[in-house]
Specification:
The chain is an all-alpha fold. The radius of gyration is 35 Å and the shape is elongated.
């Protein structure tokens, strides 16, 4: 079996009607150019089909995710094309670039979800390129816990109560918070 046959085998298991429906959905979502000809529309259809099949969906759900990713790609490219128009206001160009960046994040999240569904559970566990770390001999000799600090001395008198602002007299407020030499905060005669 050749590599081309084995790589297209999962796609062939999908219903051709589903693939055609998804391809039509992609093409309906792609903005058409003002000067499109039959030839450019056919090229666009072939390239969208190749992009959809390159993602190798194996079931209907994967095929829908692949269609979303391909559609997002075309939307991203359209947003960048619009942003590059010379007569576009700078604010609108920035908005188009922001839209393209947002769509790119969405497309990458969709591709990540697609890859998760395509990866068998055994392969889903990432393998570390480094071997597991071995404990050092000096660490093994060290005690497992630190010694506790000495206990605090017991207080014989209670802690002083902090008086709140509302509980203070004006004299106490001036003494504690007043600025020395500030005439506004000077003690008023009684």
């Amino acid at each position: 079996m050749s590599a081309a046959t084995s790589s297209s085998a999962p796609v062939e298991a999908l219903d051709p009607a589903l693939l055609e429906h998804l391809l039509d959905s992609i093409l309906e979502a792609i903005p058409a150019g003002a000067n499109d000809t039959d030839q450019t529309r056919e090229i666009r259809r072939k390239s969208a089909r190749l992009a959809l099949l390159a993602l190798r969906p194996t079931d209907a759900f994967q095929a829908m995710l692949a269609a979303q990713a391909v559609t997002a790609h075309y939307a991203i490219m359209d947003a960048f094309r619009r942003a590059a128009q010379p007569d576009l206001a700078p604010a609108m160009a920035a908005r188009q670039r922001t839209n393209a960046a947002t769509l790119a994040r969405m497309m990458h999240a969709t591709l990540r979800t697609l890859r998760q569904h395509q990866t068998p559970a055994a392969e889903a566990q990432p393998s570390s390129p480094c071997p597991p770390a071995q404990p050092r001999a000096s660490k093994a000799a060290a005690p497992a816990t630190r010694p506790l600090p000495p206990p605090l001395p017991e207080r014989t008198e209670p802690l002083p109560r902090i008086r709140l602002w509302d509980e203070m007299t004006m004299e106490e407020r001036r003494d504690r918070f007043g600025y020395k030499g500030d005439p506004a905060m000077a003690k008023s005669p009684k």
